[in-house]
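Can you please make up a whole protein chain along with its backbone structure tokens because I've never seen that pairing?
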Amino acid sequence: MPAPLANRFLHLSVGADFDSFKAYALNRGLAEPVLAFLSFRSGLLHQISLKEPAWPSPRSWEMASRLHLAGLDVDSAVGEAAASEFRAYLRIYDHLPNLERILGGKGAGIPFPEEPSSRYATTLGLTLRASDADQGLRAFEWLVEAAPAEWVQLFASDLIGQMRRKGQLGALAQRVAKEPQLQQFLRDYRELLRQ
């Protein structure tokens, strides 16, 4: 474009932002493994490829989620390289803590995973699988006991949005208000945010 013509336009740079995509994806109900994978490998949210017809983008990951939920390969949506990494990531689900036990209040003694990819899958899995305030509280209690603070913070910020969407935020707040350990964690978290 000639410089005099280019000067007649506004030129804006726009980039994919994982936190915005994650909020959107949680609201739209994208597949748990897709969100966990992208939490772990957020750099794969958007990678334009001029050589391949399919490549990772927020739009193509949403298509990949639908393909995954239907039991189909995601290659046609996000390309072979990203799909290969996603398939490798899915193997960690065989080694996650028993999330249903944790949500059922029987998580005592279950260790928090050491490997970062498993940590993302665990925290996001608990967030998405918590169907009500009671399960959310049990997951929160387990994480406060078992996980480093940054993982509890990640979980708490995602859980609040999930409980709001499910109409359970008030019930969760009432339950958390009765738990001194969770109250202390939230006070520490608020103090951290103020700094």
Remarks:
- The mean pLDDT is 92.
- The radius of gyration is 19 Å.
- The chain is about 65% helix and 0% strand.
